[in-house]
Specification:
6 helices; Four Helix Bundle (Hemerythrin (Met), subunit A); single chain; mainly alpha
Length: about 140
């Protein structure tokens, strides 16, 4: 089972110089991607909505990594970083759901027989909004 330490030892999480500017850009991009995911929902495009919503969550999480001085090479390790460093601010349930939606995005992108329905897409997009809000609060706190 992969954890934070194994992500680091395998080079899937690497220390870099912290960058508040890059972190702020990632947060801004997360908001744009969330808006686009909502547009995809309005246009009955659940695949695009799920992919966009997850991308928004990933960029919000990456904002925390950049601000802290980390670079990821694995989406799964982003969740492990959040567990190790932000469980208190984000909540473990939030991090676990982020990781679950990482898997949904993966299946949406790469599995020829998986298609999220509109109800599932609405859940992912709604959660992405909540996740972005919590990430912004955590970004300001630490």
């Amino acid at each position: 089972m992969i954890d934070f330490d194994s992500c680091v030892s395998q080079g899937l999480l690497r220390k870099i110089p912290p960058s508040k500017i890059q972190a702020e850009e990632q947060l801004k991009k997360a908001g744009v991607l969330l808006s686009e995911a909502k547009i995809a929902l309005e246009n009955d495009s659940p695949n695009s909505a799920v992919i966009g919503a997850y991308s928004a969550m990933l960029d919000a999480a990456r904002a925390l990594l950049f601000r802290d001085g980390w670079r990821e090479k694995s989406h799964a390790c982003v969740a492990k970083y959040l567990e190790a460093k932000y469980s208190g601010e984000l909540g473990i349930d939030t991090i676990e759901l982020f990781d679950e939606y990482r898997d949904k995005r993966h299946r949406t992108m790469y599995s020829g027989d998986y298609y999220p329905d509109m109800e599932e897409a609405e859940k992912v997009v709604g959660f992405a909004g909540e996740f972005l809000g919590k990430a912004k609060v955590a970004f300001k706190k630490v």
